[in-house]
Design brief:
The chain has 168 residues and is an alpha+beta fold. The chain has helices spanning 26-41, 126-139, 150-167; strands at residues 46-48, 58-61, 71-80, 85-90, 100-105, 108-113, 119-122. The protein contains 3 helices and 7 strands. The protein has a 5-stranded antiparallel β-sheet. A two-stranded antiparallel ribbon has the order 4-5. The longest helix has 18 residues, at 150-167. The chain is globular and about 45 Å long. Bound molecules: 2-phenylethyl (2E)-3-(3,4-dihydroxyphenyl)prop-2-enoate and cobalt (II) ion (CO).
Length: 168
């Protein structure tokens, strides 16, 4: 197992479009295990491979209080089922310390492969629905800060750039 470094906004590598996984093999399962270790250590509730600079369509998630309900989504596809939306105060391991309200579709269906390459379908609601859409955005190079005003996004960018300078 390994802790992986997490890319932070405004790192341009977070804008990379992830490739589909063509074979769910042991290398992918090792990536998944390392992503869970990294997410649980943070701690976080969701992590996309993009955030650890691996540009494959792999997402791990666990929204349970006890961190005992790991979910894996490989090559996920989201279908919007209805036009109702849910506002949620979102954060992101790649935008540490900042939270903003984002509106997303509330009723969705998700199709994906699990860690054995088996297809499954979910109709999540609430936080799970929000989190899956947030993580799928990462695979498409998109961040939650893209949904807020340019002024707010630039303020966050400047503050994080300052943190990164002071770290260096
Ligand atoms: C995505 O986010 C998410 O700012 C997952 O300092 C979050 O795990 C989707 C985290 C909320 C929907 C709603 C954030 C940890 C973790 C921080 C996370 C921080 C430390 C964020
Ligand atoms: Co995120």
């Amino acid at each position: 197992m390994a802790l992986l470094p997490i890319l932070e906004f405004p790192d341009p590598r977070l804008r990379t479009i992830a490739e589909p996984v063509d074979q769910v093999d042991d290398d992918i399962r090792t990536l998944i295990d390392d992503m869970f270790e990294t997410m649980y250590a943070a701690p976080g509730i969701g992590l996309a491979a993009t955030q650890v600079n691996v540009h494959k369509q792999v997402v791990v998630m666990d929204i349970s209080e006890e961190q005992d309900d790991p979910l894996v989504f490989i090559n996920p596809k989201v279908t919007v089922l209805a036009d109702d939306t849910l506002p949620y105060d979102e954060g992101c391991l790649s935008v540490p310390g900042f939270y903003e309200t984002v509106d997303r579709p509330a009723s969705i269906q998700v199709e994906a492969l699990d860690r054995h390459g088996e297809a499954f379908t979910l109709e999540p609601d609430g936080l799970l629905a929000v989190c899956i859409q947030h993580e799928l955005d990462h695979l498409n190079g998109k961040l939650f800060v893209d949904y807020i005003s340019t002024m707010k996004r630039n303020r966050i960018r400047k503050k994080l750039e300052k943190v990164h300078r002071q770290r260096a």
